[in-house]
Structures are given as structure tokens and as C-alpha cells.
Amino acid sequence: MKFCSECAGPVSLRVPEGDDRPRYVCDSCCTIHYQNPNIVAGCIAEWEGRILLCRRAIEPRHGLWTLPAGFMELGETTQQAATRETLEEARARVELDALYAVFNLPHINQVYMLFRGRLLGPDFSAGEESLEVALFDRDSVPWDALAFQVVAETLKLYFGEQPGGRYGLYVGDIERLSREPLRYRTRYL
Ligand SMILES: [Zn+2]
To answer: What is the whole-number distance in angstroms between the Cα of residue 3 and the centre of ligand 1?
Structure first.
């Protein structure tokens, strides 16, 4: 951030009085511009035992597979965001069942909230941000071509529980250990 969104004056990074970490503070109007993590809401949408995945038409991870998920919009609930993203990315209508997994990704300041859900019908197609959309069971999931660690973790949990038909609620922290090669560690609460 270089300029204040309130008055367009320059900002500087400093610790405001009474605070304990640096913030962007406007040099002119003194507005403190707090920055906080973004919530990504998404859906594990099942149809006859298979899960809907989208192949990304956008960066990052163009061409790799992901669950329908995206940043919440202002004024939305997490459930609305998950349903909307499924409609936008997979042109699929879904009914949510329950929250399934919350993942903290502190290295990119994101929190994922993934819901279990059921497709209302077998109608889906690639939305603007997808190259293709398809249903996968555990054996057909493109495990080596998944876009994000959070997707791999979620699918492992889900397909692990699917045979028993009983689903938990998971909270995990995904930590990036290195950039090259890309390595992560996931810890569950
Ligand atoms: Zn200002």
C-alpha cells in the first residue's frame, strides 16, 4: 500500500500508539489501514459418490484441478459464497450439508472454509474460470495434478470417511516449509 484510500495522501508503515505490530498509517489524515486474512469458501459437491472438481483456467496453478472455492464477497455468508462459487466455476447447483473443514494458511493470509454438499442434478459445465469440470471418485482423482495442498488434504479426509458415511469437522493448519521444491506440513487440531 502506498496511498491512503480515504484522502489519497501517502502512507507509511509504522506501529500505531497502543498497538504491537506495524500498520499502514496515513501521514495526512492518520487513518490506520488494518489488513486481515481473507476467507475462501468452497464446496465438496457430491453426486452418486463422486466429487466435483474444476480444472483452473486462471493463474495461479492454471490447468490443475481444484474444488470450487473462492473469496467471499462483502455482504455474503460463507454458505452463500460456497454455493455461488460452485455455480460460477462449475455451473452447478448444490445444496450444502455441513461445514467439513477449516484450514488456516498463514503464509498467504487465507482461511479456507469448505462445506460438504450434494449436487441437485448431474448438470454442470465449465464456468469462466474453469477449463473443464468433472466428477471423480477416490481412484480417479488426479492426485498429481491438484492445484493446492488444501484441496489434496480435503479430498484425502473426505474419501477416507466416505465408505463409512460418517463425516467429522476438521481444523488444520497448512504451513509452507519451502518454496523450491514446494513443501508443506499440515497439522490438525
Ligand atoms: Zn489519509
So the answer is: 8
Domains present along the chain, CATH in parentheses? 1-35 (2.20.70.10), 38-188 (3.90.79.10)
Distance 169 CA to ligand 1 centre (A): 43
Give the DSSP H/E element, type plus range, for residue 32. Answer: strand 32-33
Going by their DSSP bridges, the two strands 170-178 and 94-105 should be labelled as: parallel
User: In a structure prediction context, what are the per-residue pLDDT tens digits for the chain, which is 189 residues long?
Assistant: 999 999 999 999 999 999 999 999 999 999 999 999 999 999 999 999 999 999 999 999 999 999 999 999 999 999 999 999 999 999 999 999 999 999 999 999 999 999 999 999 999 999 999 999 999 999 999 999 999 999 999 999 999 999 999 999 999 999 999 988 889 999 999
How far the first Cα of the chain sits from its last, in Å, is 34
Q: How far is the CA of 23 from the centre of ligand 1 (A)?
A: 13
Tell how far the Cα of 35 is from the centroid of ligand 1, in angstroms.
16
Ligand 1 mean position, distance from CA 33 (Å): 9
